[in-house]
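Per reviewer request, we include the raw input and output of the structure prediction for the construct analysed in the revised manuscript.
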Amino acid sequence: MTVLTANELISVEIAKAHDGGEIRYDGICYDYRDAKAQKGIKLWLPPIDEPIRAILFFGNPGSGGDTRDKALNRTWQDWAAQRQLGIAGVTWFRGGEIYHKTGKNILAVFNSWAELGHHPELADIPFIPRGSSNAGMTAYGLSCYVPERIVCFTSNVGARYNPFMPSEKALQIPALQHIGPVDRFMPLGLKDTAELYQRIRPFNSLWAWDAEEGKGHQDFSQLHIDLAFYSEILDRRLPQAGADIQTVQYDEAWLADTSTWANRWPPRPCHIASFKDYKGNKDTAVWLAGEATAKAYQAAASYHKRIQLTIDDLVTVGPADGQWNINDADLPTVNPDEEIVLRIKPLQKNRMINWSKIEFFNGSQLIGTVTQGNEPVLKTKALPGKIEQVFTVIAYDDESGAEYVANPFGVVVRNKSMSDRIGEQMQTYHQAIAAPSVPHGTALDKLASIETGNDKLIAHALNEQQSAELIQSDSLPGFWQDVPVTSLAQITRHDHSVGRDKAKKPQDIGVEMRAVYCRAGLGLLCLVTDDDLNVKDGFDWHCSWQDPREFSKKSVLENYITGERDLLLEAVQYHASFEQAGGTLIRNIPRGGLLHLGDRKQTLQEAFEQEGIKITFQNWSDGRQAVQWFLPWSAVGIPAQREQPVAGTHLALVLGVNDHDEQDDNSSLRWPHARDPWHNHDFDHPHPQVWGSLVLGSALPRK
């Protein structure tokens, strides 16, 4: 048994996987890597005594994408634990291969975990697959491969479905498929889905589809319709762990008429009705799990939207946020009995509609009506015991006869006791990962001398005491004074205005870098000298697990792809401003080869609590601004990488400072030379120059 931490917080069991790869269990999470260290699965189980009912299974977007961080996502955990569900995320599972090739691999991994003896129910555990793009194809393929173990599935902006024709057993799985009618990234999605539903129409399938107006390769409202769907399906299909999955009858449903999605003036919501009361052609109608799902579906699928539903202090969802990404956003989560302020606003740049009254619904229940002359706001409370609550509205204009809907907005109501238990569980987990575990006097001391130079930043290994100081201290540890210094010149300065005006010359700026590492992760210290340092300035760094010589040979297109905010990275990128209070970390999610359609922003506190990334600001002894970074190895570039890379490893490294002199008010994650891959859609800029190597070197001398 391998001990990860000095305090023996978590012990790890390691065994060979069925395919020659490796499986692990640390008491909280299960992990799997195939023999090529490419495919991976991470499974989190909630801190409950009862057996797990099912697994919420996130496929990976893009063939090499990674959703293993979903297993550690606190908002999803708060929901899943109340449903007695585990959460699994994967990497490098291609959706088109699940049915005929890799679905059996997934089941074999869960069986191997079951054989460890801690959770034998994993051998036959049911699944709830979900995901976008490639992950949507994964949800489809897995459901067709093993329909007897699928509770329900949801997919978003998928295409190229395999198999071509689902079995009749698979068609009895309740499902929601969300399509982007103007999807330029995967334009066959609409066509493939339409043809699929033509094929399955004669079989009274329990599958539904929607296509929100203006939606491309995006999320929009899919998560919030899914919440209503899960609320109505899970207990009906799976009353308890270990029980047989129950059949849902075709006539136990509501139906929606797709021909009424886009009613012309005056606009009306798409027509929904119970199966019994539906007057249209039931053979062409969309099958929906119940009234709450139907209300959310109606809110999303109806066209000619002019208003949006928002909840104060929660992120707006749906078309109003202009998302061009498929990140399967976190669940909006509230506390029981917390006041929820539902507010109606004009959609994007529209003016507010004329309205006579607005009806507010929580699921199928009318919870309030606001009449003309009053503010379009309704205050309600999160209902304890009702885990998923999905709000919708209908606004009536008596003068024109128009009826407007807005996007659905779903929230999850926490269970405080369960949420506290998860918090304690995850605190233990992150402490175990970050625990100091590189003692002085190892083979690192015998490392052959490494050639030094101004293109190498040597990271020195810490002993156990120094590791504890790096990870646990809120101030700069004293050992930094003993770490050799690498001084950088103004090549590291990112002045956006200079990037626009080639005639401008950047002012002098000095940067000193120091680096250390331990078994838990990597530490960097950046010391900046600037004649006009301010809180809008920031530090960037970019690290690739490729050898820098190989990285620099590749073209811009090979290293990353830009387009409609599409980015394929083989490096991790981080940017943090020198603003200490309430600072923001901007980053791409560190998963080499991930198709990731937008940068990610976190507060520094969120980065620490969710992923163990710790950024410390402090003035150096001579007054310079010092920024200390600590990142677990999983955040340096290899997902779920816990082991320290071997001494002598070279990583490609780019370092820089975003400077805001000369009224340059642009703060973003960027490569050097003002290259900003998030917003520039061409390849005319210079290749991002690799500054040099980050080399994992020998231990610091013990003082």
